[in-house]
Amino acid sequence: MKTSLNRRSFLERAALTGAALSWGTSPGVSAEKAGTASTAASSRPAFPPGAWPIWDETEERALMDVLHSGKWGRTASGAAKVREFESAFGSRMKATHCVATSSGTTALLTALGALNIGPGDEVIIPPYTFVATFNAVTASYALPIFVDTDANTFQIDAKKIEAALTPATRLLLPVHIGGSTCDVDAIAALGKTRNIPLIEDGCQAPLAEWKGRPIGTFGIGGCFSFQASKNLTAGEGGAILTNDAAFADLCYDFHTPGGAKKSPSSGRGANYRMTEFQAGVLLAQFTRFEAQAKLRDENAAYLSSLLETIPGITPARLAHGNNRSGWHLYMFRYDKTKFAGLDRARFLQALSKEGISASSGYARLNTSAHVQAIAQNRHYVRLYGEKAMKTWLDRNQCPVNDSLTEEAVWFGQNRLLLPKSEIERCASVIRDLQKRAGELVRT
Ligand SMILES: Cc1ncc(COP(=O)(O)O)c(C=O)c1O
Predict the structure, then answer these.
(1) By CB count within 10 A, which of 40, 186, 189, 193 is most buried?
(2) pLDDT score for 262
(3) What is the pLDDT of residue 261?
(4) How many A from CA of 3 to the centre of ligand 1?
């Protein structure tokens, strides 16, 4: 019993930040391939279930190689790691160009900078996203316009975008949230018809596919993050993918002062370069990435098949053409009325007691203090006018998203790397909780 409790409390700590690997695997993927086997030769610590990131001597060697080479940044003569990573990630995602950056945020800032998005421009974003999507827009003093969420997929509701367009709309910036995809076909078609560029925020979604095609190039480009919690990580890191050579050059030049591509300058730029150390670690992580993704695919499908049989638990549906999720998050809706009124916080607490850590996910971004502050920001008031900023606050209403933020529950990508028995235990704990819910409500 004690061992079991220890193991559970360990899993809890591991939950939303990392992946649990070393207990074995689901059928078809060997533990070794998924990066779960212990490596006697390595000086790495033994990875308990839930540990993330996973690394071994491959990462050690990559870091030492860069260290000893003395070429620590991509601008050093003969530096090759960032280029190598760009080529590997770009070709895996079937994009002809990749520009690596220091983070997902700087990938977004670079893409928006390359398009010269700025004051007076409106940018369409979802409210169900990490605040970085919003920040990338306001860092350019453009106006983020929220389009409500589809309650079934948790993604931006593509059908509602057109009504939010104005003559000032200069960019569509949908997000592939949780690693699953939004209806990127419909959004790309709308962008084409209305001549508005599309940048996909794919920060959570490397390897995700729409109708068999990796995301990131449905519009002019896509942005990715390799931050510490991400499925492919170097602690921090990012990338822009595109099939447009001119846009790739603009991004390259924007992200490096005095950029070498000689693209037509907007007079703007920054240093958002990825380091050779980051690229070395990413290349090492890449060696396990596919096997880990396959394991997540299998476990997510299995978990859904179990959870779908529980009244009140509704896994986020994949949008119609989304035939591969990157599974950064496993998201579902929790209906407390099917659990004797047990509220979500207490449901999460009860899961946590069983060593199953879960999160309530994003709060309402569109009405958060951070977002509302823009309406009083002196630059915004000067640029857009007080009245327009008040109207903007009114435009920010997203009722579907409001309800979703009350009902959502997430498991981190780490849960999808646990052995099958742990996936089964998760569903049976929820089933058991449903039976005990009335009693829990009364205590
Ligand atoms: C949807 C989304 N966009 C942007 C970002 C920003 O990426 P980073 O943290 O690498 O700057 C993140 C990171 O979590 C994200 O989830």
Answers:
(1) 186
(2) 86
(3) 83
(4) 36
Counting from 1 in the atom list of ligand 1, the atom nearest the Cα of 176 is: 1
Ranges in the chain, pLDDT < 70: 1-46, 48
Pocket test for ligand 1, best of 130, 156, 327 (most atoms within 8 A of CB): 130
Helix, strand, coil share of the chain (percent; to 5): 45, 15, 40
Which residues make Cβ contacts (< 8 Å) with residue 392, sequence separation at least 6? Answer: 143, 374, 375, 384
| Ligand 1 geometric centre to CA of 111 (Å) | 14
Residue to mutate (ligand 1; options 135, 149, 203; most atoms within 8 A of CB) = 203
Q: Would you state the pLDDT for residue 6?
A: 38
- Render pLDDT for 233-287 as a digit per residue (tens, 0 to 9): 999 999 999 999 999 999 999 999 988 888 998 999 999 999 999 999 999 999 9
Find the CATH number of the domain harbouring 235: 3.40.640.10
> What pLDDT score was predicted for residue 14?
40
Pocket of ligand 1 (CB under 6 A): 103-105, 129-130, 132-133, 175, 201, 203-204, 225, 227, 238
Q: Domain range holding 163?
A: 61-282
Instruction: Examine residue 277 and state whether it is found in any structural domain, yes or no.
Output: yes
Residue 267 domain flag: yes
Nearest alpha-carbon partner for 202 in 119, 376, 219, 306: 219
Report if residue 326 sits inside a domain: no
The SS3 assignment for 429 reads helix
Q: What is this structure's pTM?
A: 0.91
The reply to whether 228 falls in a domain is yes
Q: Hey, whose CA ends up nearest to atom 10 of ligand 1?
A: 104
Identify the pLDDT of residue 21. 30
**Domain total in the chain:** 1
